[in-house]
Amino acid sequence: MSENTGRLVRIALAGNPNAGKTSLFNALTGAHHKVGNYPGVTVEKREGSRARGDKEYRFLDLPGIYSLTAYSLDEVVTRDCLLDEPPDLILDVLDSTNLERHLFLCLQFQELGIPVVGALNMSDEAKAKGIEVDGTALGKLLGIPMARTVATNGQGLDALLDLVDASVSGNAVDGRSLDYGSEIEALLGPIEKAIAEDADFASRHPPRWLAVKLVEKDEDAFARLEAHREAGKVAVLAKKASDWIGRHFGKDSEIVISEQRYAYIHGACLEAVKRKEKGAPSLSERIDRVVMHPVFALPFFIFVLWGIFQLTFSIGAWPMAWLEAFFGWLSAQVAAIVPMGPLHSLLIDGVIAGVGSVLSFVPLIIILFFLLSVLEDTGYLSRAAFATDRILHGFGLHGQSIFPLMLGFGCSVPAIMSARTLKSPRDRILTVLAIPFMSCGAKLPVHVLFAAAFFPKNPAAAVLAVYGTGVVLALVSSLVLRNTILRGEPTPFVMELPPWRAPTLRGLLWHVGEKTATYARKAGTVILAASILIWAVTNFPAYSPTATERQSAAATWSKAHPGADQAALDRGVAAALAGKALSASAAGSFGHLIEPLIRPLGFDWRVGIATVTGFAAKEVVVSTFGILYGVGTDDGGSTSLRAKLAADPSWSPLAAISLMLFVLLIPPCFAALATLRAELGWSWLGFSIAFQLAIGWLVAFAVFQVGTRLGFS
Amino acid sequence: MHISELPVGAEFVVGRVLSGREVGKRLVDMGFTEGADGKVLRKAFLSGPLHVEIRGYEVILRRSEAAMIEVRERSKDAVPHV
User: Fold this and answer.
1) How much is the pTM?
2) What is the CATH number of the domain that holds B30?
């Protein structure tokens, strides 16, 4: 991997979160970048390039991290990347307003033996805050060339790339590196030497870096050491050194090492950074006095959330209607071209209806992601974690779980994806598993239909009760999982609180574009396949009514609608026969097959069918009932279906509540399940499906049976 | 003494961080090292998280994590360390 044509420079872009790394990456690479995942993990991997003069720079954007320990996935990914495929240079993005902590990571990069260049980013903000950084002096003190940049407007990029050129050709590094003090250096020396004795190993593992990590008792470093010819000898030396440091300093060696780093940095900053005394409280602090009020932070958060959903659904209704109209037009066009028959039905009822219904959610997702990106880029997300951690922590969740969970009320797909912001795998799994309990937007039409049919006096209260049950079950199940299969020490909640920043439109659009593309790609593949599958099981085996069946359907319909004309009669008969066709299909057989299982919940075979079709998208449950009750798909949610349900003696208000809970709790739609698999893998997908099925069945069973005993039916 | 025992607005100096396991190491890496200066900015209701300034930037942390850090209050007229 280290082949170098002399013109190609491979650069790893690294740094702390909130340093403007993504902005710098975008400023450096323009539109030339691609986004993927690191193999096997859901950490995003971005690559891009830039040409300048006779050189081509290839940038790899590493995840934002605080240190190079092995405690978080992002840190492990960064470390593996730098050790296993060393770049020509590490470009470290530093926040000039918060240099000490940012340099803490920078100096760990330096120990890897790869040239490092520092971008003193946000230099405009630092200036405004009265912080004056002498980049040249700091660079000399640390042995890391530094240039001032403002990534948001591209300022300083050329000077930065000049430093990169000089460093790569070996003209800038003067070999200075962090000094841990004579006592620790005396211990590190022999370890470094012992590592270097295996030259082949040392060429892949920088001795200085590894020696420090071993003294820090880093488990991953010890695992890497296994490949050394004399691993045992080095390990003994390192353990002796850690023990000595522990005794001598009276604290753990890994803490001593970090403190020495900070002491070294503090010394350098005293010389190269000038800070004017702070005057009045900053604007950021004044905003926080309201938003992070010890008591009102939580109500404020609820208000923000309410605002987001109001905006999303009210603005989203317009483009959603346009898209629905477009797909209606499209299916009319296709219907005119393709003759009646299986292909006609596949294209219109399968492909267009399936993909169309999923794509019509794209505008909602774009708006939701846009608003969430605003919250993220301004810095509100961390404040929301502050407001909600107390409650969520009580149930084994994390303050940062709040946004994925709340997004779950909109759509599980982006919600599951957004759980990536949780750095601990255990917290992420727990959060993702709780998301299906949040009643998503597609389940709302089902709730509304049944609430209106069986609770005409107060449908809103019935819907709200269902939502509330979902939230309570999400919290309780998290608590249970946290104390059983996901047991473990609570993840530390130590979060940086970035100052409030005005988001840039470019940054926002970039976030939104990236996330929306992922969703749309899924709709194009998994959901297309799922739509076809569901179309097949609801249309085959094909049903062709006999003349007598047709006549009897016509007679029944005429009796119920005296005086109707021929066209109305045809429609009525077609609707009645569509219900029969669905009942005779594979999905219908499945419904009949599982009827004994769902009987105790108050349902018949129709719910069995709706369970299958609901896999495509939950709102399809409504149109399935429309077909089964012979009102046609066109006006599935209309009053006629409501009236028919209310008049059907096999339903009762109790069975309706049971159904709403059942639809809420059983596994979510295909799109959500596909996302869950992509994020957590097959085994967690299997677990989630089994878990939701069990809870859905048990809750519906308990509600219906207890309710019946109490005489509510 | 721990951060949660200090009143809002109090300035403190970090003493030592107990244990270098995951939480302790994370705290030290975030800048809670012996001698570092900090300030209590706010404390959430019902034993919720703390909002603290450390080394010139801001962090939020739970009281259970803050209990890993020994601090002493700095009197207002003392000479600042940073």
Assistant:
1) 0.81
2) 2.30.30.90
